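Posted in: Protein Modeling Q&A

I'm a second-year student putting together a small comparison for a lab meeting, and my supervisor asked me to include a predicted structure for (African queen) hypothetical protein. I've never done this before, so apologies if this is the wrong subforum. The sequence is pasted below exactly as I got it from our records. If anyone can share the structure token output, I'd also love a short note on what stands out.
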Amino acid sequence: MYGCATSYADWPAATPVCSYNRNALRSRSTVRNYVVYIFLKKCLIAGVTAGGGGGWEPLGQPYFDNSTKREATAAVGQPAYLHCRVRNLADRAVSWIRKRDLHILTVGVHTYSSDARFAALHADGSDEWTLRVAPAQPRDSGVYECQVSTEPKISLSFRLTVVVSKAEILSGPELFVRAGSDINLTCVAKYAPDPPSFIYWYRGEQVVNYAQRGGISVETEQRTRTSRLLIARAAPHDSGNYTCAPSSSESASVIVHVLSGERPAAMQSSCPPPPSLNRVFFIATTIVAASATKIRRDVLFPLILYITYSFLQVIGIVVLVFAIFFIRQIHYSFISMSEMR
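Accepted answer (user: helix_wrangler)
Welcome! Here is the predicted structure, written out as tokens:
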């Protein structure tokens, strides 16, 4: 296999000259590593380890499968689920504990809470232990622990968030549309954990009737939890309170005003023009009218007050404070002059 040759004449400074069979050593090392690998693999597959007294004992300690999702969101009134997966459980018990008050909710598949909304779900032969809360309420939000009865005990925390699933109409609470334009309403079911099975549109107390009036269409996308109501060529009689009602969310409403020529632009808007622009336009037209015609005093005085108020609001509070301070100084000066006289 291998050998060494040494020149004793040079001892002890001589360095052994060794020759060996590299292939033979590599072959032995490979066989030894392979045997160890097979042994360890069989031990892991069998789930056993060498114990005292020459016997075999089951591999003892359970552990959590951390691949499970540890945060869950549920809508009010809908069931909520927390999934805990435990490997190598053997004869140990799994408990669910509410963290805020350390209340034991379930042990195994048995419920130890007076609140019947809590239950443990488990299938024979499965590693998964599920806590169900049905129906979920906002007070159920918080941290829950999945605990295994080892010594010492091991636990894994889960967070449950219960939200109010409410629809939202993106145009806002009010919508102004000129007659002849289209009404376009978009409704989103926010915080809904699952897509709604349907989304209804109401006008007042009645479901929007497609047959009664042409030009009405509804597009619903369950994946995005979105519904769009389109009413073509709106008329004044289309005004009213429109409500979006998803199957699993609270409804939302918008008041639609269809104007007959009051608005110059044929476009829909959720709010009137900016107040500052309205005010400037009103002031300009008032000044022109006042200079061209004779206006009664009872009409002119409120207009002057409105113009003054608008001016102060545009200039800002700083100018207003400065003006008050200046007027007070003038007032005190007049008082001083009067006292001197």
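A couple of things worth pointing out for your meeting: Confidence is low (pLDDT under 50) at residues 1-20, 43-58, 270-274, 288-299. Helices lie at 22-46, 275-292, 297-315, 317-340.
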